[in-house]
Amino acid sequence: MSLPRLAQGKNRGVMPGNPACAGCPHNIGLRVMGRVLGTNSILVVPAGCTSIISGFYPRSSLTFPVLHVPFASAPAVASGVRASMDIKGEEGVVVVWSGDGGAADIGFATLSAAAVRNEDILVVVSDNEAYMNTGVQASGTTTWKALTTTSPVLGKSEEKKDIALIMMFHKAPYVATASVAFPLDFAEKLERALSVKGFRLIHLHSPCPPGWRFDAGKTAEVARLAIESGAWILWEYSQGTFKISPQSRPYADKTRRKPIAEYLKLQGRFSHLTQEDVAEIERKVDENWRLVLELERIYGPQKP
Amino acid sequence: MSVKYLPSDLNKEAEEDLRKIREKLLSLPAPGASGPTGSWRLYRPEISAAKCVKCGICWLYCPEDVISWVPRELPKIDYTYCKGCGLCANVCPVKAIDMVVEGE
Amino acid sequence: MKKVLMGSHAVAEAVRRARVEVISAYPITPQTVIVEKLAEMVERGELKAKYVRVESEHSALAVVYGSSASGARVFTATSSHGLLYMYEMLWWVANSRLPVVMAVATRAIGPPWNIHTDHIDALTIRDAGWIIGFAESVQEAFDMTLQAYKVAEDRRVLLPVMVALDGFIISHTSEPVVMPEEKEVAEWLPPREPLPFRLEPGKPFAVGNLGPDSVTMELRWNSWRAAERAKSVIQEVSVEYEKRFSTGTPTGLVEKYKVDGAKYLAISTGAWSGDVKEAVDALREEGYEVGLARLRYMRPFPREELQELLSSVKAAVVLDRSVSIGHMGILGSEVKSIAGRTPVKDVIAGLGGVDVSYEDFASILKGAVEEHEAGLSSEWNVAEWHMPWVT
């Protein structure tokens, strides 16, 4: 995917004058998604930031057909939309555009069941690592130690739930991680996901300026540092083959990673960390890399 | 005014109500679904024509879709809606965008 | 065609004849037999529909919500805890004005675990914007399910419909059922017109964006008007259905049984109304001037018809298979709200499936008549619990 080709996309995804916070990562994702998916798609949106970003009646800032649905229901509603289109012989892409809470917490059973049924739907989880829309409460995907309004002093005491790996182990045909730091990589993954039939999920890392407490202009910078420090790893699992994406590949080598502190220090949510905490986070990053490299060894393209 | 239900011509009433459901439940795509969000702006991004290499990176990252860009042309910013987040200035590879205090 | 069928299978046969396109459900006793039958019909190719096996009732209703928003004719079914688990989706469906049809094999809510019928589960959704019908027989469960599509999809209505049938008493009991042929049904029930909107690629609009508070209120007012209109539509549809298919099921919102010249009125809903009728027959023979108003529909509430009936009797007795803890029986409180000066006695009975015989009904009715004649009906402000085994 090249930038000029993306720019030719006819569907804008989200339009100017929407209610998203300044520097919102979801909007970067929605813009890319619109241009890649074109007009032949339907968006199912559970409760979350995008319930607001969609704008105020009588206007919609989103350029897709959009069905707003209750928090825990989106993958099931999308399955229903798909079922109706199938029985009527209609073409089109049915997309769940969800936050982390909708996908990994309250809607998790529903998401899991849709994956088990191998529903022909695309789920994009735009993960800003907390319940941002309700005012930054900790979610299942909030990282360890992050300050949120429900972990306001000590930070979150539990681990981040790895929703992409969990979905991969549902034997889903296509699961990938992406980042708003690399919109073209996200665009390519969307394109590849569209070429696959069945359940597809892209876990998009979406740093949130007000929720993570950094300047609105730094959304892409923070997202990029997550990758350069190894804290977020881009990979793709397509029909049985697992591959680390080129943008993350160099950081398999720990010596090439930026210090994790560089990523953390930009974010107010980590302002309370001790040196020991930072060291512990680094250890967790190393451990995660060990797992991802092992997955590539097992499921990688070079298998016999 | 208080409203009391007085059934009249059920078919006529039903058609009117159906029109109202569609009108009130559905929202149509349009810019400005949250008003002219340019008023949120504290800093104004200004593109230097001299420095700009017309690469489109600012267009790619702009969360608001307020930058219009055609390959090899100077990008243009729609200030009616630009919220002034500064992402464009941050990602510009040649630092051709300055964030200028609004009103100066 | 006349066949002996279990209530659950009769509902499934109605769904088949309605040419439903998407079915989704989650197992719960006593509903499960309905969707097992439908799954079999789909797998055998007898019904050209998608059957979506979900992980919960919340998702079952979510699936059919998505399908209905995309223009399909849909069906789901549940009971008790399953219905409660659907709760927020029930409101979402109704407030989106989608003509979803659902069968509820009524069942008590636990604890203790109890799979037998009462009406509390179905009545918990009385405020959610659904049309709620209660069947008295297998035949009526069949007819009501088929008519539900015609009513829900009517341009004057566009509200979802729930058909309640008493768990086991109807769902698992076999009775002869008169069923119109598929071709005849197709002539009467055309394919669904996708109203009030249809989600499809290439037609961008958002359903349910945030808006001014007044939009919410106006939409509720819109639903309220639709429910009022539904009274006429239910009447019209059921009369037309009976004219075409002659199944013998009563029409309209209320079945009036021996109400002519009645001085006292029993009010009930659901399967046990058959036993109430026997009690009425027995009392009539003993010289008591008693009749029965059986509510076929709880929503829209048959306000006008009941008011008319109540205004011509001395007193009424509600045989209530439900309770709102902290107040009274749910049906009783509904009836009292429109009864005017007519004294209404609310008798709560049969909760958790406790068997209530026609002799019980006869003694309840007799007791109420005697109390009223003795000038004691002023004490009816508190509901009475019929528990003869408690001493």
Walkthrough of the structure:
Chain A has 304 residues and is an alpha/beta fold. Chain A has twelve helices and nine strands. Chain A has a single domain, classed as Rossmann fold (3-Layer(aba) Sandwich). Chain B is α+β, with helices and mostly antiparallel strands. Chain B has a domain at 37-101: Alpha-Beta Plaits (2-Layer Sandwich), CATH 3.30.70. Chain B is built from three helices and five strands; from the N terminus they run αββαββαβ. In chain B, the strands form two sheets. Chain B has a two-stranded antiparallel ribbon with strand order 2-5. A two-stranded antiparallel ribbon of chain B has the order 3-4. The longest helix of chain B is centred in the N-terminal third of the chain and has 16 residues, at 10-25. The radius of gyration of chain B is 23 Å and the shape is elongated. Chain C is 40% helix and 19% strand. Chain C contains 13 helices and 16 strands. Chain C has helices spanning 7-17, 32-43, 57-69, 80-85, 87-95, 120-123, 138-152, 182-188, 213-245, 273-285, 303-311, 330-336, 358-373, and strands spanning 2-6, 22-25, 50-53, 74-78, 101-106, 131-134, 161-166, 174-178, 206-207, 254-257, 264-269, 290-295, 297-299, 315-320, 344-348, 384-385. Chain C is globular, with a radius of gyration of 21 Å. Chains in contact: A-B, A-C, B-C. At the A-C interface, strand 1, strand 2, strand 3, helix 4 and helix 6 of A face strand 3, helix 3, helix 5 and strand 9 of C.
The tally of strands of chain A reads: 9
- String of helices and strands of chain A: HHEHEEHEHHEHEHEHHEEHH
Number of strands of chain B: 5
Quick one: CATH superfamily of chain A? Thiamin diphosphate (ThDP)-binding fold, Pyr/PP domains
> How many separate helices of chain A?
12
CATH architecture of the domain at 37-101 in chain B: 2-Layer Sandwich
Rough shape of chain A? Answer: globular
The most extensive interface between chains reads: A-C, 49 and 44 residues
Tell me the Rg of chain B in angstroms. Answer: 23 Å
CATH class of chain A: Alpha Beta
Number of helices of chain B: 3
What is the CATH topology assignment of chain A?
Rossmann fold
Beta-strand share of residues of chain B: 15-25%
Name the shape of chain B in a single word.
elongated
The major sheet of chain A is characterized as: 8 strands, mixed
Strand content of chain A: 5-15%
Provide the structure class of chain A.
alpha/beta
Widest beta sheet: strand line-up of chain A: 3-1-4-5-7-6-8-9
Name the assembly state: heterotrimer
Structural class label of chain B: alpha+beta
